[in-house]
């Protein structure tokens, strides 16, 4: 999943030592605000000091973030986990270009595109085709029980 917007806040990094492997770990949490008519906020994490350093996310940056969303249970309650695996500078032309999105996909917050339907074309048979079967009359010529 991808989301684009502006970084509005960076929360303090958290870290510790893994009980299983004994290695250190770090997690940074960022708050992104979308650029829609009604902006939404999304908190996401970057796991690992190497990724935190390579992404180098700063407040005020316009970014497109690729996210991995997962949920886990703890003591009978469920918690969402939103982690970034790729961060790129925001490119407004990528969202506007229809070829950039897969068929039937729409940018976040936009309705899905559907081809227009011409009622006259839908009712008339195509050239070389047999006309459609008449509407159900209640009588059937086959021996099926339904």
Describe the protein's architecture and organization.
By secondary structure, the protein is mainly beta. The chain has helices at residues 49-55, 92-96, 119-123; strands spanning 2-10, 14-17, 24-33, 41-47, 62-74, 77-89. Strands 1, 2, 3, 4, 5 and 6 form a six-stranded antiparallel sheet that branches.
CATH topology, which one? OB fold (Dihydrolipoamide Acetyltransferase, E2P)
Radius of gyration, in Å, reads 26 Å
Shape: extended
Number of E-state strands: 6
Keywords:
146 residues; mainly beta; OB fold (Dihydrolipoamide Acetyltransferase, E2P); six-stranded antiparallel beta sheet; 3 helices; 12% helix
Question: How is the topology of this model organized?
Answer:
Layout lengths: L1 E9 L3 E4 L6 E10 L7 E7 L1 H7 L6 E13 L2 E13 L2 H5 L22 H5 L23
Antiparallel strand pairs: 1-3, 1-5, 2-3, 3-4, 5-6
Q: Can you summarize this structure?
A:
It is built from 3 helices and 6 strands. It has helices at 49-55, 92-96, 119-123, and strands spanning 2-10, 14-17, 24-33, 41-47, 62-74, 77-89.
